[in-house]
């Protein structure tokens, strides 16, 4: 759920916030986009000093910490947060807590929280692996403290021993917990996504039983709502999903000028206006920013259709000219071949007739 929250925030920022920033940068008239912001929920989970993961890690490092003491401290510290829920029923407040995620409220049982976060079984597993007779298995144990080594390199907490001259690395943190490790790995994933241009594929399950020919309408609607797809559809209607640099727009649609019967203006913005006036596009469905043209689908689709019609006509014309040229060339070659054959036959006939007349004489 923490991963879903993190990726949902990145998705919102990438799709909605950046889209709105683009409108502001190009100085066009638009109504502000309203979308689900789950920043408050993420702060409840991971933002120090008081958050679910930080309180859990602190209790794991406390000598006499238990699940119940952790929950009591968490109730006291976070009960006022709008996304924090003590539990479904007051009688179970000492054994569970809830978080109001963007997809809905989820209640968590605290049984074994500290042990799972400490992950003591992992140390025992690595001890067994170190004593393995397989060289490969023993080599894998080198990666046990990979995260800790990475943290040392990043934080640069290196102290040199003055007595031996060797390098000693120390950190101000103990062995990383499962929650700490997972949080850092998730942050690294988000940083990678921020440096790339991601493409999203939303997978929707038609039913929970994986059976063919079964469509659960409520399940599909819930998935569309929780994944933000309904917000995307709404924003595509309210906003301008197509935005192209004015020069690229004119370069792509310059073929419309011949149909319009006049030359396009040298100024890209004026040329865009000429094209829009030709297709009779309502001014509410498109805008010109400082450098880009913003279109709604109600304009973009008919414009693409008109361009396809123009290109189709030109393609047919090119094909007609090429086929005519090819047939004329073929006709000329065939005609010359026929003339040569006729000349050869007539010559042979006349020579034969001449020889016959000569013998008869």
Approximately what portion of the residues adopt beta-strand conformation? 5-15%
Distance between the termini: 116 Å
- The H/E string reads HHHHEEEHHHHEEHHHEHHHEEH
Major beta-sheet overview: 3 strands, antiparallel
- Please state the CA-atom Rg, rounded to the nearest Å: 37 Å
How many beta-strand elements? 8
| Helix count from the secondary structure assignment | 15
* SSE-based structural type: mainly alpha
Q: Which consecutive residue ranges, at least 5 long each, have pLDDT under 50?
A: 154-172
> What spatial order of strands do you see in the largest sheet?
1-2-3
Quote the average pLDDT. 83
Principal-axis shape equals elongated
Helix content: 55-70%
Description:
The chain is mostly helical and 361 residues long. The chain contains 15 helices and eight strands. The strands form three sheets. Strands 1-2-3 form a three-stranded antiparallel beta sheet. A three-stranded antiparallel beta sheet has the order 6-8-7. A hairpin with a 2-residue loop joins strand 2 (96-101) and strand 3. The protein starts with a helix and ends with a helix.
Key attributes of the depicted protein:
361 residues, mainly alpha, three-stranded antiparallel sheet, 15 helices, 8 strands, elongated
In short:
With 361 residues, this protein is mainly alpha-helical. The chain is built from 15 helices and 8 strands.
How do the strands and helices of this protein lay out in sequence?
Blueprint: H1 2-26, H2 39-46, H3 52-61, H4 67-78, E1 84-85, E2 96-101, E3 104-109, H5 113-118, H6 120-130, H7 135-140, H8 146-155, E4 158-160, E5 167-169, H9 178-194, H10 217-226, H11 229-238, E6 242-245, H12 246-253, H13 256-260, H14 268-278, E7 286-288, E8 292-295, H15 297-360
Antiparallel strand pairs: 1-2, 2-3, 4-5, 6-8, 7-8
